[in-house]
Design a protein that fits this description.
- The chain folds into two domains: 27 residues; 97 residues, no CATH class.
- Helix content is 19%, strand content 36%.
- It has two helices and seven strands.
- Strands 1, 2, 3, 4, 5, 6 and 7 form a seven-stranded mixed beta sheet that branches.
- The longest helix has 23 residues.
- Keywords: Signal.
């Protein structure tokens, strides 16, 4: 009789424990958002008067350019954040999307301009029109 009570008690305990994750993960629909992060390897970062031209490697191994205005990195709660690191995986960038739309970008860079990943934009490349976008378009193909 005692073993039956122990077995019943253990079974009830695990039943309660199994239903806990189902109830604890409920999020009210009005407060929910879907964040998606995509990490991309940076081949080169070119700094200019208007911002950074980031040459990145997409998932198919092709190089593409992204233009990130300086204003994104200087404004509080802006669309860009530069993080200096000596990590072996740097330089790379993380592009954040909220509900399918571009939210912000973080670039993880080596903290010295002497590093091979840094360069300077030539005057003919540093046109203001490249840095006027309000959003970041990444080519994943």
């Amino acid at each position: 009789m005692v073993n039956l009570r122990k077995a019943l008690g253990v079974a009830v305990f695990f039943l309660i424990l199994a239903t806990f994750p189902l109830t604890s993960q409920e999020v009210p629909e009005e407060n929910s958002s879907v964040y998606y992060v995509k990490s991309l390897v940076i081949n080169q970062i070119a700094i200019g008067d208007y911002g950074y031209r980031v040459t990145y490697l997409n998932g198919r191994g092709r190089l593409h350019n992204a233009y990130l205005p300086h204003e994104w990195f200087s404004a509080a709660a802006g669309q860009g954040e530069q993080i200096e690191t000596w990590s072996k995986s740097a330089p790379y960038m993380e592009v954040y999307y909220e509900n399918g739309a571009f939210s912000h970008v973080r670039i993880f860079v080596i903290p010295t301009y002497d590093h091979i990943s840094w360069t300077v934009l030539r005057d003919d490349e540093d046109t203001e029109q490249n840095f006027t976008a309000d959003t970041l378009e990444i080519n994943y193909n």
